[in-house]
Write a structure and sequence with these properties.
globular; 268 residues; mainly alpha; 10 helices
């Protein structure tokens, strides 16, 4: 990667880290605002990958609105809000298809609605788990995915030769995967032993668990982009590509962490 692009990558990551740190420091409504921003931009990118072109802006905007509605429902009403917002989302999409079919049955199908439904499941449904976590827990998940990605990138760049899953992601190597695993496990263990309330083996297990989730999230988005013949999910982040390219690991790690902490207590 050229030095200028690498510098852009570092600068963008630093600015994003600063925004997240500010949100977590202030807490409350600012955390919700960041989640809404990330969710909206991510849904816009995802829908645009399936339906590029200005003629589909209303479809993308619909996805953004549905995602925001789900996050707000969870924030202010909890689990009932999640259940009802998911049911309401499908109800709305069914009506949307019904009216589109009535107006133009020759060309209407349910594909656009399936794309919107998938975007709701991929972004707001995964991100809403952050609303159930403490600041300490959010930082841990962010740390695990950031270290996973960074360690995998550099170990893969310098030592990667044998590819791990070339049909899905031709650039990712075994060296990168192992480097990400080691880095993530070490970071999670160090963080947990310093601030948590669980024995060593729990943090080691959590580190492995979160790294596998992060790598699966990365592979999923890589396969999605290759299937749609898209290089990057967008261009909003200089040096990184799209927002989805940066949060793909986080989207699958969040629910995995939420599940793990239900089974094993982690913090006092």
């Amino acid at each position: 990667m050229p030095a200028s692009a690498h510098q852009q990558r570092i600068l963008t990551a630093g600015l994003a880290l600063g925004l997240v740190a500010l949100a977590l420091w202030q807490g409350g409504i600012l955390v919700l605002a960041v989640l809404l921003l990330v969710c909206g931009l991510g849904q816009w990118e995802l829908t645009a990958m399936f339906r590029p072109g200005p003629e589909h802006r209303n479809l993308r905007l619909t996805g953004v609105i549905l995602g925001a509605a789900l996050l707000l429902a969870v924030k202010f009403t909890g689990l009932p809000g999640l259940v009802w917002s998911l049911a309401g989302c499908f109800w709305f999409l069914a009506l949307r298809f019904l009216f589109r079919y009535s107006a133009d049955k020759e060309h209407a199908d349910f594909t656009d609605e399936i794309i919107l439904l998938a975007s709701v499941g991929y972004l707001p449904l995964m991100l809403q788990f952050a609303l159930t976590l403490s600041t300490r827990e959010i930082v841990l998940v962010l740390l695990s995915t950031a270290v996973s990605d960074t360690a995998a990138y550099y170990s893969g760049t310098f030592f990667g030769k044998k590819k791990i899953w070339p049909q899905v992601s031709p650039k990712k190597s075994w060296a990168g995967s192992i480097g990400g695993l080691i880095g993530c496990t070490a970071a999670v263990t160090a963080y947990g032993l310093r601030l948590g309330d669980a024995p060593l083996y729990v943090w080691l297990l959590l580190g492995v668990f979160l790294n596998v989730a992060a790598q699966m999230g990365d592979f999923f988005e890589s396969a999605l982009k290759r299937g749609l013949s898209v290089k990057d999910s967008g261009m909003i982040l200089p040096g990184h590509g799209g927002l989805l390219d940066r949060i793909d690991s986080l989207l699958l790690a969040l629910p995995c962490f939420a599940l793990f902490k239900l089974i094993l207590p982690l913090f006092p």
